[in-house]
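I trust your eye. Have a critical look at both lines of this record:
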Amino acid sequence: MNCNSAQALPAGDSPASIPTRPVTLRDVVKDAGGAALVAERLQLTATSVYGWINQGHLPLSDLQGRTTYSEQLAKMQKTLTLSPVEIRRLGLRL
């Protein structure tokens, strides 16, 4: 079986295996309170945040360091513990 980090293991491959999937930007936004709350705290429209979710990554301005959305999202997380760098990398093919 060809298995990489982006795929979940089927149940039963290992006694201790629990199928998982990679964390997405959608997961981070949901954990931070949802698109409407994230938009309000970042002084954006919910449409902008939904655009990030649909694209799967933050805007280029954050990747270039012109905005601090990843830092702010990292602080807003309730149960996830991703760093700003990890949030910036979500959805990117590096």
Q: What stands out?
A: The longest helix spans residues 46-55. Residues 13 and 70 are 35 Å apart (CA to CA).
